[in-house]
Amino acid sequence: MTLTSFDRDGLVFDVTDTAGEGSPGSDGPEGQVAGTVVLLHGFPADRDCWTEVCRPLTAAGLRTLAPEQRGYSPGARPAGRAAYRIEELVADVVALIDAAGVDRVHLVGHDWGGAVAWAVAGTHPDRLASLTVLSTPHPAALARAYRTWWQARHSAYMAWFQLPWLPEATFARTFPAGLRRSGLPEAVLQRYLRRMEEPGRLTASLGWYRAMGSSAGTMHRCKVPTTFVWGRHDAFLGRVAAEATGDLVRADYRFVELDEGHWLPEVAPGRCAEEILERVRSTTSS
Length: 286
Description:
The protein has helices spanning 51-59, 86-100, 112-123, 139-145, 149-154, 156-161, 166-181, 186-196, 201-210, 239-244, 264-267, 269-284; strands at 5-8, 11-17, 36-40, 63-67, 105-110, 128-134, 226-231, 253-258. The chain is an alpha/beta fold. It has a single domain (5-284), classed as Alpha/Beta hydrolase fold, catalytic domain (Rossmann fold), CATH 3.40.50. An eight-stranded mixed beta sheet has the order 1-2-4-3-5-6-7-8, sandwiched between helices. Mean pLDDT is 93; it is low at 23-29.
């Protein structure tokens, strides 16, 4: 069955599902691999950021599921910051896995999607066959890095986003310039900005930041086989946290440093797909 959406607690999440396009569920010809990959986007992106990443995965026989996450999907924009705590975001992912009818998935996340992916690995390791995180260090490594001037300065926007109403009032005037400087391609930026004009989407997506103070801690030691891919020119997430991430993984671990910035799914989809496939294959062959 191919999913177009799934629901949880009355919320409806749109999802792009490639079931039937590859050959998931059984080993195929040489070079093919079985399994399901779930891909979680970040801010201010959408599920379409994974389109070019998914093509090689599907060609290799994998089923891919790319949900429009809480606050982004039109049917899943609850009011109030408590609705966007990390526990709720994690539960959404588990609900998707259940709806897909599989026991375990290969989980991939970028930006905020990476933070959710780390949390799923910490709280539901039994539902994951592997983890690939793009750009976002382990939360405990990032917490350590906040003590450095570079990371504190480049994370200041997170505190700004937690203010009421003011970020919405100034977003269109101030934030696009920063996204351009960070390397987000103009055509992609314009698509994201258009989507942020949907009723309630900007406030709901900012809810992720506003819920940070009330979310449960995720400072776990990851026990899932993990690949962490980081761009050395990332404008938001620096080297200290990136290099410390391996200290928090208690399973097979691979750190990949690319000559890129923050927007890895958008600017380096082929390389992202390569690393996801390598992690999937190393897990299924072990």
